[in-house]
Amino acid sequence: MPSAEPPSSGPARRRALRAYAAITAIVGALLLLFAWTAGWLSPGRLTPARMTDAIEATSTTPFPGFRRAHAKGVCVAGHFEGLPAGAALSRAAMFASPRTPVLGRLSIGGGSPYGLDAQARVRSMALVLASPDGSQWRMAMNSFPFFGAASIETFFEQTRASAPDPATGKPDPARMAAFAARHPEAQRFAAWAKAAPWSDSFANTQYNGIHAYHFVDAAGMSRLVRWSMRPQAPFVEMDAAQREAAERDYLQDELRARLARGPLRWDMVVTLAGPDDDARDPSTPWPEAREQVVVGTLVLTQAQDQATGPCRDLNFDPTLVPSGVALSDDPILAARASVYAQSFDRREREIAHGDDVDGVPPQETAR
């Protein structure tokens, strides 16, 4: 019986060389893709690191161990009660269940963990709905009804324009005005910020998911939607004098006082897109006349300091969705996942390194 041909000679050797070449090509392609994604081959390209750097630069003081945006917040917990109307639109397990556990965080805008609650124009709600089947739904919502930028590049430009001038410690008004002049959506957002009334509580604030998603039902039918958490607590306006007089932790203290009296509730309201509504542009609100459906109720029962609470180490990545919910092709939504991950990794490294915040170890104060 003839012996097997050694791989060092003849056709076997050529086959082995072709196999090695194919493996090398695959590895090379992966390295090239990784390098391109990281921005190494195009230094001017916008990357998650550059976007996170720009967000960090909007704060005059670094706060290691804290979130780069919405640094000040409070952990909350409760549950979500799904409704049949939600199950009809989406096969997500959360709508079929009468009670899904929820962990979350209520926060204010800005990079300082010591900001004044009542003077923060933007309030936010982030949630993790964890179904018994192991699926999760992570949401990130804000009090503004639409985004101030139509693209991630515009948001990067806006973030850089709002960075404080080293000479004054405040954004340069001329630079901000020049940015707004080039972007009508920024003007729309500024008009909202100036005219919309301020709520006097986390509990009576509406939180909006500004991105479009697809709800997919049991039959596989997909509907484009946006959603909001609309408070059952009646809205009460807070005027400028009240905001000036409020204590630093006013919103957190007021929230705890309300929770001591009983649970707080928000209706989850889904807006169904019309044929002309653009899924890719979170800066354009959909018309009020669009069909709206109440699909469930969020119930919050507890609050806890973020330094020791269960929300501290959570990354509220809004692209983590359950079966029955699918991402739209909104590029800003896609970019948020990588920027959130970048921010999360940085603060985890800072905690591990033991960086101090104003002389206090970050593990005692962070996030």
Rounded to an integer in angstroms, the radius of gyration calculated over CA atoms is 24 Å
CATH architectural label:
Beta Barrel
The share of residues in extended strands comes to 15-25%
Describe the largest sheet: 9 strands, antiparallel
Number of domains: 1
Q: What can you tell me about this protein's structure?
A:
The chain is an alpha+beta fold and 367 residues long. It has a single domain (46-365), classed as Catalase HpII,  Chain A, domain 1 (Beta Barrel), CATH 2.40.180. 34% of the residues lie in helices and 22% in strands. A nine-stranded antiparallel sheet has the order 4-3-2-1-8-7-6-5-9. Helix 2 crosses helix 10 and helix 6 packs across helix 7 (184-195). Residues 1-9, 19-43 and 356-367 have low confidence and may be disordered.
SSE topology:
Blueprint: H1 10-38, H2 48-56, E1 73-82, H3 84-89, H4 93-96, E2 100-108, E3 123-130, E4 136-142, H5 152-161, H6 173-182, H7 184-195, E5 207-216, E6 222-231, H8 240-245, H9 250-261, E7 264-272, E8 292-305, E9 325-327, H10 331-353, H11 362-365
Antiparallel strand pairs: 1-2, 1-8, 2-3, 3-4, 5-6, 5-9, 6-7, 7-8
